[in-house]
């Protein structure tokens, strides 16, 4: 009977939040709910069918000696006033309620966390699993993820374990969902939000990325290697791609630009770029388009960088860098702001010889009147960048930004190409 489970679960919830649970023997107060104070709002005594169903359940529970009840006096029909648990029959109450005692639930969740921790290798996943197991082991109640129930939690751990197995090629979100649940939409509908909350809290690179970039859930997942659809990588210049099916030469499209998908990247055997002596990575799409139309040289490869590199795009960029002649010059052109500095730093990890282009103090001074005003919090964060060794190349630039109290978007430079 649903009324029996509802009554017992409401009382057991109260018990698990009481001194009887946290400090057994300390309190002599009843674990009690009152129908008149929203302790049991479902008990609509004016509706005869509802009242009779609940009254039958209450009598059944009294007969089983798991609860006690007090009825309102002077009523023609019995109306319950309050209910309280028989603390000497808790085991029976849990059984009838269809739930495990709280400590048993905590122990089960801890065991699942520790077992998965032994099977995964991704650092931020291990950090989450270890931290949660430690937190739960001393908890006196369940909250957050655990309030959603063991089935949801098991599904979440399933997603985390499958994510740990992903290789650099990543996977589409629907394929990932099928691999986890045999249902192409289950992950996005039911698990994605909790998955991303964990990644943001324990994955340092994603957390750092989001400190300056406003990314949608799908963009965040793509950064982690789970993408809604294949990414498109645009470039222009004397580049030929060799696959097992042959060689495709893109050189004749240099003035217009061309693209490959992220899925195609994993079929590349070799990149031919023998005459390239400079590679220009451009963050902004409009600037990329204008540059290849107005300023592109025959001996340079121009790559649309876009935002922060996903694992798939990192692979493509790494393929380009490893195929360049030794004398190749690498340039990065981005917004003169925190995001641009972070993107430069990420790319420099792949191309140690990378140098910034049009991102100096001279550009700040020249375009200051067209700069973007920032709040004091942003400028303080910008000032903290001066102390980071990786930002030494931007020291004069940052000082100029602080002086003029602006940041510079690269679009304002389009007329000077």
From TrEMBL:
Domain Wadjet protein JetD C-terminal: 276-413
Pfam family for this entry, one: JetD_C
Domain of life: Bacteria
Name used for this protein in its record: Wadjet protein JetD C-terminal domain-containing protein
Organism: Formimonas warabiya
UniProt lineage: Bacteria, Bacillati, Bacillota, Clostridia, Eubacteriales
């Amino acid at each position: 009977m649903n009324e029996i489970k509802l009554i017992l679960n409401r009382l057991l919830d109260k018990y698990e939040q009481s001194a009887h649970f946290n400090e057994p023997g300390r309190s002599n107060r009843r674990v009690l709910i009152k129908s008149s104070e929203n302790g049991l709002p479902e008990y609509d005594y004016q509706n005869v069918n509802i009242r009779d169903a609940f009254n039958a359940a209450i009598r059944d529970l009294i007969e089983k000696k798991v609860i006690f009840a007090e009825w309102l006096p002077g009523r023609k029909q019995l109306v319950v006033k309050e209910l309280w648990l028989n603390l000497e029959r808790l085991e029976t109450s849990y059984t009838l309620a269809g739930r495990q005692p709280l400590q048993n639930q905590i122990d089960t969740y801890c065991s699942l966390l520790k077992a998965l921790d032994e099977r995964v290798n991704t650092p931020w996943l291990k950090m989450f699993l270890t931290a949660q197991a430690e937190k739960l082991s001393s908890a006196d109640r369940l909250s957050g993820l655990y309030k959603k129930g063991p089935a949801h939690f098991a599904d979440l751990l399933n997603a985390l374990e499958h994510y740990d197995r992903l290789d650099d090629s990543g996977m589409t979100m629907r394929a990932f969902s099928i691999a986890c649940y045999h249902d192409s939409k289950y992950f996005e509908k039911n698990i994605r939000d909790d998955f991303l909350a964990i990644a943001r809290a324990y994955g340092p690179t994603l957390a750092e990325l989001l400190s300056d970039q406003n990314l949608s859930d799908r963009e965040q997942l793509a950064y982690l290697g789970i993408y809604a659809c294949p990414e498109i990588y645009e470039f222009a210049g004397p580049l030929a791609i060799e696959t097992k099916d042959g060689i495709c030469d893109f050189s004749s499209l240099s003035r217009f630009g061309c693209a490959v998908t992220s899925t195609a990247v994993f079929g590349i055997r070799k990149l031919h770029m023998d005459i390239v002596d400079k590679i220009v990575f451009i963050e902004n799409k409009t600037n990329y388009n204008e540059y290849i139309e107005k300023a592109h040289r025959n001996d340079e490869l121009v790559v649309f960088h876009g935002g922060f590199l996903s694992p798939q795009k990192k692979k493509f960029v790494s393929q380009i860098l490893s195929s360049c002649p030794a004398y190749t010059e690498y340039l990065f052109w981005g917004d003169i702001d925190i995001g641009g500095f972070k993107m430069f730093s990420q790319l420099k990890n792949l191309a140690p010889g990378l140098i910034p282009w049009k991102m100096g103090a001279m550009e700040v001074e020249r375009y200051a009147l067209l700069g973007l005003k920032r709040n004091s919090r942003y400028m303080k964060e910008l000032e903290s960048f001066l102390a980071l060794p990786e930002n030494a190349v931007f020291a004069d630039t940052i000082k100029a930004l602080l002086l003029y109290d602006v940041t510079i978007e690269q679009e304002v430079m389009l007329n000077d190409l």
